[in-house]
């Protein structure tokens, strides 16, 4: 069985649309730590109880006991089924739905994502072995060049740096031996089609830097020229310094950052991410102990990059080479960061140096000092606009500077954080002092620009049926959810943990139809009317699988669905099995994508939150808990079989030999349960 092509569509849509933007388009969001909160529209919410987790791209109202991902939010908000929510969000993101429809792929096809992942890993590993072995003269030159750049063996291995031989067909031949066609090599971005037929390698005689996704799977490659090898073939210029893999089904430059899979935990710990310009900068930074560094991949920072970065940190430091081009790049992205309510700092290195050079020459402590002193991007912009300007007499330049800065500030979202609001206030005061204009006049002009932008957005929404459809109010006739029970909340009830937040329950807005307009529209492929919250050992199992996805691969092989007491557990295991059969990773993100039922999505988000809160309090590792859980299931199975056998003894008239055999089987089962020997 293979997952439908819709999985790839869902994956792309989720990466392209931020849940904060979708919720914030109709509800007023307030920052709350690393999350956002708002008043839940599905009950009479006296204080914000709807939580939006931007990092995990999930939402939850603990009072209504509803939650999930961006798809289930639109289903809940608009009263629609999953396909409609998917199509609406795809249209909002500008993604063509029909190109994903009706594609039935098989392993080995250039349209099959699992095939491309396997091909990419095979070649990436082969390039790594070429550099690791150092058997050829060219690979030795590559090792020497890497060492000359100050990169040691530990970090070469950490980033899986490799070498592509001076061959037109190294990768193509390797793939062909493993039954991957030339078309697969081309679709993965590893080869280029010849005009007369056949394929040749995209990368030759270069240092190879694999680009990994957040599941740590290689999805593309970047190659850096090695001057000595380029010179050997008579190409003293070496061609392009960097060659990046093309856009493929696996890789989109605007959605990926080099090194993020290694840096994300450090970014979460520090609350800060450093964005650099090249692969070697990131590797050198990591080697120097700067673990929160990433790099763009042959393209400028864009909105999709910022959405990705926001999931891990609200503070971004743009590390620029000390040249004019670097300053221009900072100017180009400033408004994007302001609109996204991200704290952007700009670190400009001394002219002529890049991060790798600076760290090698000046060390980690001096680099850290520059990072700490990096000015806020708005302040950086003001300094740039007023550099060399006579603010007393050059009226034209002053007017241009004011309009430019206020135009950027006008894009700060209404739900901006208190930190952003404070920065805007400080900027307005500094502008007032710098330009000799009262803060009142500046604020009046700012308000005019905000109103103009608001009017422009309103017109766009009216003229664009896609936006109107996505943000449409819920239909008047729709199924509704029952009001929450007034019984005391059970702390062991996975679907009833509002007590942890102690919300004001208030009036639930109960109507004849139920609670407000909260819907319970679900897919019809299973007995969803009998879905119940997970409890006991079933809940422990799926919490463990969510905490340690590697164990999910074991679970799909070893667990019998009949062990479960609820349809909820059976359906979650089935979802894991589908993902495993299709070669997908078994992370929470993938699980939420494959599930199209609101109740199941809510269950997964609830379990994930329980895991997060538990943190390191558990005395057992996930592996130990998993072993204990499996033992519990097996013991329960033995007890159930014993009960069936006893019932059979009590109700059936058995012959003496049959009764003796049955008693012996009961004894054997009991001995097995207590692990006693003959």
TrEMBL record:
<feature type="region of interest" description="Disordered">
    <location>
        <begin position="450"/>
        <end position="501"/>
    </location>
</feature>
<dbReference type="InterPro" id="IPR037068">
    <property type="entry name" value="DNA_primase_core_N_sf"/>
</dbReference>
<dbReference type="InterPro" id="IPR034151">
    <property type="entry name" value="TOPRIM_DnaG_bac"/>
</dbReference>
<dbReference type="GO" id="GO:0003677">
    <property type="term" value="F:DNA binding"/>
</dbReference>
<dbReference type="InterPro" id="IPR036977">
    <property type="entry name" value="DNA_primase_Znf_CHC2"/>
</dbReference>
<dbReference type="InterPro" id="IPR002694">
    <property type="entry name" value="Znf_CHC2"/>
</dbReference>
<keyword id="KW-0235">DNA replication</keyword>
<dbReference type="Pfam" id="PF13155">
    <property type="entry name" value="Toprim_2"/>
</dbReference>
<comment type="similarity">
    <text>Belongs to the DnaG primase family.</text>
</comment>
<keyword id="KW-0479">Metal-binding</keyword>
<keyword id="KW-0548">Nucleotidyltransferase</keyword>
<dbReference type="GO" id="GO:0006269">
    <property type="term" value="P:DNA replication, synthesis of primer"/>
</dbReference>
<dbReference type="InterPro" id="IPR006295">
    <property type="entry name" value="DNA_primase_DnaG"/>
</dbReference>
<keyword id="KW-0862">Zinc</keyword>
<keyword id="KW-0863">Zinc-finger</keyword>
<keyword id="KW-0460">Magnesium</keyword>
<keyword id="KW-0238">DNA-binding</keyword>
<dbReference type="GO" id="GO:0005737">
    <property type="term" value="C:cytoplasm"/>
</dbReference>
<keyword id="KW-0808">Transferase</keyword>
<dbReference type="InterPro" id="IPR013264">
    <property type="entry name" value="DNAG_N"/>
</dbReference>
<feature type="zinc finger region" description="CHC2-type">
    <location>
        <begin position="40"/>
        <end position="64"/>
    </location>
</feature>
<keyword id="KW-0240">DNA-directed RNA polymerase</keyword>
<dbReference type="InterPro" id="IPR030846">
    <property type="entry name" value="DnaG_bac"/>
</dbReference>
<dbReference type="GO" id="GO:1990077">
    <property type="term" value="C:primosome complex"/>
</dbReference>
<dbReference type="GO" id="GO:0008270">
    <property type="term" value="F:zinc ion binding"/>
</dbReference>
<dbReference type="Pfam" id="PF01807">
    <property type="entry name" value="Zn_ribbon_DnaG"/>
</dbReference>
<comment type="function">
    <text>RNA polymerase that catalyzes the synthesis of short RNA molecules used as primers for DNA polymerase during DNA replication.</text>
</comment>
<keyword id="KW-0804">Transcription</keyword>
<dbReference type="Pfam" id="PF08275">
    <property type="entry name" value="DNAG_N"/>
</dbReference>
<protein>
    <recommendedName>
        <fullName>DNA primase</fullName>
        <ecNumber>2.7.7.101</ecNumber>
    </recommendedName>
</protein>
<keyword id="KW-0639">Primosome</keyword>
<dbReference type="GO" id="GO:0000428">
    <property type="term" value="C:DNA-directed RNA polymerase complex"/>
</dbReference>
<dbReference type="InterPro" id="IPR050219">
    <property type="entry name" value="DnaG_primase"/>
</dbReference>
<comment type="subunit">
    <text>Monomer. Interacts with DnaB.</text>
</comment>
<dbReference type="GO" id="GO:0003899">
    <property type="term" value="F:DNA-directed RNA polymerase activity"/>
</dbReference>
<dbReference type="InterPro" id="IPR006171">
    <property type="entry name" value="TOPRIM_dom"/>
</dbReference>
<feature type="domain" description="Toprim">
    <location>
        <begin position="271"/>
        <end position="352"/>
    </location>
</feature>
């Amino acid at each position: 069985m293979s997952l439908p092509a819709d999985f790839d569509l869902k994956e792309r849509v989720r990466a392209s649309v931020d849940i904060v933007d979708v919720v914030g388009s109709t509800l007023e969001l307030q920052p709350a730590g690393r999350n956002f909160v708002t008043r839940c529209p599905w009950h009479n919410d006296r204080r914000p109880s709807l939580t939006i987790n931007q990092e995990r791209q999930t939402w939850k109202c603990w009072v209504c006991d509803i939650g999930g991902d961006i798809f289930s939010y639109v289903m809940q908000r608009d009263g629609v089924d999953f396909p409609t929510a998917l199509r609406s969000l795809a249209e909002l993101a500008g993604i063509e739905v029909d190109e994903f429809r009706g594609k039935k792929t098989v392993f080995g096809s250039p349209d099959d994502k699992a095939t491309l992942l396997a091909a990419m890993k095979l070649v990436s590993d082969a390039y790594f072995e070429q550099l690791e072995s150092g058997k050829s003269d060219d690979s030795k030159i590559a090792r020497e060049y890497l060492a000359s750049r100050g990169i040691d063996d530990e970090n070469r291995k950490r980033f899986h740096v490799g070498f592509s031989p001076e061959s037109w067909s190294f990768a193509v031949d390797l793939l062909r031996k493993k039954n991957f066609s030339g078309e697969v090599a081309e679709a993965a971005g590893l080869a280029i089609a010849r005009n007369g037929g056949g394929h040749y390698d995209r990368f030759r005689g270069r240092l190879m830097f694999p680009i990994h996704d957040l599941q740590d799977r290689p999805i593309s490659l970047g190659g850096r020229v090695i001057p000595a090898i380029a010179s050997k073939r008579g190409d003293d210029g070496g061609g392009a310094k960097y060659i990046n893999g093309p856009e493929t089904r696996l890789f989109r430059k605007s959605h990926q950052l080099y090194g993020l899979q290694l840096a994300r935990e450090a970014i979460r710990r520090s609350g800060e991410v450093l964005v650099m310009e090249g692969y070697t900068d990131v590797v050198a930074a990591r080697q120097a102990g700067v673990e929160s560094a990433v790099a763009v991949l042959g393209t400028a920072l864009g909105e999709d990059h910022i959405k990705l970065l926001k999931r891990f940190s609200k503070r971004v430091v743009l590390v620029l080479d000390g040249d004019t081009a670097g300053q221009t790049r900072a100017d180009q992205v400033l408004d994007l960061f302001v609109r996204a309510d991200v704290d952007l700092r700009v670190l400009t290195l001394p002219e002529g140096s890049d991060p790798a050079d600076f760290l090698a020459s000046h060390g980690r402590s001096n680099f850290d000092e520059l990072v700490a002193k990096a000015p806020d991007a708005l302040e950086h912009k003001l300094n740039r606009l007023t550099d060399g300007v006579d603010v007393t007499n050059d009226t034209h330049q002053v007017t241009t500077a004011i309009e430019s800065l206020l135009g950027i500030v006008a894009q700060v979202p209404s739900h901006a954080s208190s930190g952003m609001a404070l920065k805007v206030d400080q900027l307005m005061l500094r502008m007032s002092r710098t330009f000799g204009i009262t803060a009142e006049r500046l604020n009046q002009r700012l308000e005019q620009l905000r109103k103009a932008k608001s009017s422009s957005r309103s017109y766009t929404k009216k003229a664009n049926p896609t936006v109107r459809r996505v943000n449409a109010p819920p239909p008047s006739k729709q199924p509704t959810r029952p009001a929450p029970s007034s019984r005391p909340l059970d702390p062991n009830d996975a679907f009833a943990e509002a007590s942890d937040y102690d919300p004001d329950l208030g009036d639930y807005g109960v109507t004849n139809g139920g609670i407000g307009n909260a819907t319970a529209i679900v897919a019809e492929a299973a007995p969803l009317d009998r879905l119940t919250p997970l409890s006991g050992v079933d809940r422990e199992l799926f919490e463990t699988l969510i905490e340690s996805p590697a164990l999910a691969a074991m679970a799909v092989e070893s667990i019998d669905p009949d062990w479960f007491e609820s349809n909820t557990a059976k359906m979650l295991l089935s979802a894991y099995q589908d993902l495993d059969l299709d070669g997908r990773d078994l992370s929470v993100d993938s699980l939420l994508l494959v599930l199209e039922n609101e109740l199941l999505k809510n269950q997964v988000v609830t379990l994930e939150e329980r895991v997060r809160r538990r943190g390191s309090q558990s005395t057992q590792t996930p592996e130990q808990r998993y072993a204990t859980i499996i033992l519990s299931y097996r013991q329960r199975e033995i007890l159930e079989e014993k009960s069936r056998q006893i019932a059979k003894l009590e109700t059936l008239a058995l012959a003496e030999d049959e009764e003796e055999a049955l008693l012996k089987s009961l004894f054997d089962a009991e001995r097995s349960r207590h692990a006693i020997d003959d």
